[in-house]
Amino acid sequence: MENSINVETDIFTIISHGGNAKSIAYEALEAGHRNEFEEADKLMEDAHKELNEAHKTQTKLIQAEINGTHFEKSLLMIHAQDHLMTSISEINLIEQMIKLLKKIDTLQK
User: Fold this and answer.
1) What is the structure's pLDDT at 3?
2) Across the chain, how many H-helices and E-strands are there?
3) Do the domain assignments include residue 81?
4) pLDDT tens across 64-85, in order?
5) Domain for residue 2, yes or no?
6) Residues with catalytic annotation?
7) First-to-last CA distance in the chain?
8) Are 71 and 65 in contact (CB under 8 A)?
9) CATH number for the domain including 45?
10) CA separation for the pair 39, 46 (Å, rounded)
């Protein structure tokens, strides 16, 4: 991870990776509905990798601020934070839904 701060670029990195993570998680859920659980698990792993990238960038911004770098808080930054938190919540729910789909599949067999 690069140590320099480019706030606007970092904000778009959070939005991009957070959105990718959520989209991939929904693909995993669809795979779960098709009982393709290996694919669902792989996609969830990919979703977490994307989420991790967003979170690393968020952490970089937080650490920069703690260490004295001041930057203007913008509506775009608030949007990025909102986007990331929503992605985290939805991914957590999708994981639980896939677990339920696996149990249903087991019970139907």
Assistant:
1) 56
2) 3, 0
3) yes
4) 999 999 888 899 999 999 999 9
5) no
6) 79
7) 46
8) yes
9) 1.20.58.80
10) 11
